[in-house]
Hints:
The chain is mainly α. It has helices spanning 2-33, 58-74, 81-97, 105-113, 121-134, 139-148, 152-157, 177-192, 199-209. The chain has one domain (58-209). The chain contains nine helices and no strands. Helix 2 packs antiparallel against helix 3 (81-97), helix 2 (58-74) runs parallel beside helix 4 (105-113) and helix 6 (139-148) packs antiparallel against helix 8 (177-192). The radius of gyration is 34 Å and the shape is globular.
Amino acid sequence: MRSLSSAIRLLVVISFILLVGISAVLARSWSYHYHPVPEATPVATATTAAPSASEPSTAELLKRAIVSDLALFAQDRNLQPRTGYSDHMKYVTSELLLFDRMDSPEALSMFASLSGYYLGAPAEKLYQCLALRKGKALEPQLERYLHDGNPECINELGQDFSKPSGSLDGYALCSTSQQQEKRLTDLIARIDNGESCADSELARISASGRK
């Protein structure tokens, strides 16, 4: 009788162990194959898809791209004199040329603010041509920088960029106040004199910057 009772207890223990083991296996199997169903996200409406008010405009992004490339170029000490300068000028002139068809007040402001930077010889000529093409619409922005100054370059990039760079024809990326005054005074005078820059001249200048 005692042996029968022991056998029954052993059988119960074995059954319990098997039950626990099977449950664990099933639990692991479920966890391996379980993929939670993601909650449905609301469909974007015209209101939610609208760009944020703080999102930069195309003109601002374009200016940032030009300034960033100039800053990297100005500090590149491993630059190959011919190929490096040529590639840089191709980029800057190509990007700067996109401002030609941008005439909104915000775009004019972005374009005028570039007067505080030295863009490299070919791009400087292109900038003057584009400024003449924009004419009287741009003049108030140029006059504002002439009267108030334009310390943006040093404020944004730091004093290191006020030092002459061998990569930028020996000029500093951040123009001095005297250089800015001379450039702006000249541009404003040419605009007031009715000077312009024809399509053929624009094409010639932009092509020379890509060589």
